[in-house]
Structure prediction request, 637 residues.
Amino acid sequence: MDRTALRLYFELAKRQFQRQLAFRTANLAGLVTNAFFGYIRATVFIVAFRSQGTIAGYSAADAVTYAWVTQALIMVVHLWGWYEVERTIRTGDVVSDLSKPFSYLGFWLAKDAGRAAYFVLFRGLPVLALGQVMFGLRWPSSPLVWVAFAASLTLAVVVSFAWRFLLNLTAFWTTDARGINQLAAAVVLFLSGFVMPIRLFPDWLRGAVLALPFAGMTQIPCDVFLERLDGADLAGALGLQAFWAVAFLLAAQVVVVLATRRVVTQGG
Amino acid sequence: MVRVSDDRASGGVTGRRAKDKGVQAKHPVSDPLALSPSQGGAAGPATGSGRAETDAGTFACAQDKGRNAGHADTGFAVRHRSFVPFAPASTGRHALHLWLAEAQVHAGLYRRLIGAQIRSQMQYKVSFVLRMLGSFAGNLIDFGAIAVLFNRIPALAGWSLPEVALLYGLSAVAFSIAELFAAALDNFAEYVESGSFDRVLTRPIGALFQVITEDFALRRLGRLSQGVLVFVVALGLLDVDWTWDKGLIMAVAIGSGAVIFFSIFVLGAAYCFWTIQGREAANIFTYGGDFMSSYPLDIYHGWLRRFVTFVLPLAFISYYPALYVLGRPDPLGLPGWVRLLSPLAALGMALLAWAGWTIGVRHYQSTGS
Prediction:
């Protein structure tokens, strides 16, 4: 990839970032909603931990932080409710995107990166700040943890993006991809450890779920934030995320090629 | 139908209009602003004759400006019907007849409009089935989270898993019933933003009635069925000595809860008349309220418990009915009869929603593009 191409994708990401800036009040309303759910989830954990010292290695403070970090990640990782590609397929705008002289996958990945960067600054950090004010969170103890967290979060966004992108692409075959997206959202919310940490799952379920790509969307970044992983464990977890990111991106590229052929036959 | 006789003075005009606008002329009883049956009934005869007069006036305009202008003017005239003075005194029986006729008209219309909605949704069967499954699974995972947590703890603030499941089931069933009917209110901001609401105001049927018949979220039967499932399993697991009053309280709680949630959806939509972010603001109280009601209120801070008891009565959806059935003490220390007040809370919310909506409609200024 040459420098002009990189520059192009950077510009795309920047534009998407700037576009988000226009929805200030919507973001504020979403922030309040995220914080309200954060309050309830954290309160449930505090009461649940009252009689137990730790559950599955989490202290009450860990669990409260877990609840707030997941709430902060909702719009960054964007686990559900993303129909942007599906919409262009339904309206036919996809034709113009496909005919442009750049990678269709790269085009959307760049836009999603810009979107995620916006939500890190204007949703994730404010939600964490509110959590700190209301409950007091358990913050990473060293800058290195922040670096690992940033890496894990980036991979989480890529895995989540490729997954959402694949789901949206099913619209090439079904025109209405909302059904499959909703079903997938339910699966992801549960298997990513969003609604409850995977480490609290029953033993027979936990190992398998931790190896699935969805763990890389929420559970792994949260565990990195809480310093549950270090040394080989940390490398293994990041490696797992990277593996799924590459695998999903490859799958997405294959599906784009298949889908493009389909567009040509239909439009011919 | 009863009121057609009031229009006799200008029979010709009404007849002429009948060809133009089927629904209105056939059922001149329907009052667009008054969703409240009592208002519709009491003001009936007055608005009937009033309509005849304004019709005669607008009819003249219609001839000048053509058909479209006529429609727009009719909207104006119809909207101001209820301000016509000198209402002839009506007997109670007469009012009841009017009310029944009006209810019949709306029920018939509702059936037809929703029927069309459902038929159109059935055009994409695979997607429909998947969305229903998604709605089922998407909400079941909320209970999955509770189940996973209870796998690790014996009780939450003294509440066992079946007891929390009862709270969850009550709230989920009430919420999904409300959501079936309120689905169209989700997109209401677009209505206001695009100016489409103008179109609604020109039609001689209640504005809210028209908006909610734009969508009927049959796919959300998935959510309802998972709520019912959890509710029934909870009832089976609970060690409760069932008596008729407890059964009645459960049934009333579901109805009241649905009305409370529906009222919040309406208030959120009404708020869109001021800011198009209304729905986002309402999300906290609808989805957030449902989520919150799935857990015993004992766990929350005092200020929040008081807020959802005395200000926004979310506590009456699942918590107080559950306290009654389970015979648990109330940490707020309120007298026992408070647990029976769900219908009153629902009535209060419905009146508030009706008032909020009416004020919102009056406040509405078209985008006028």
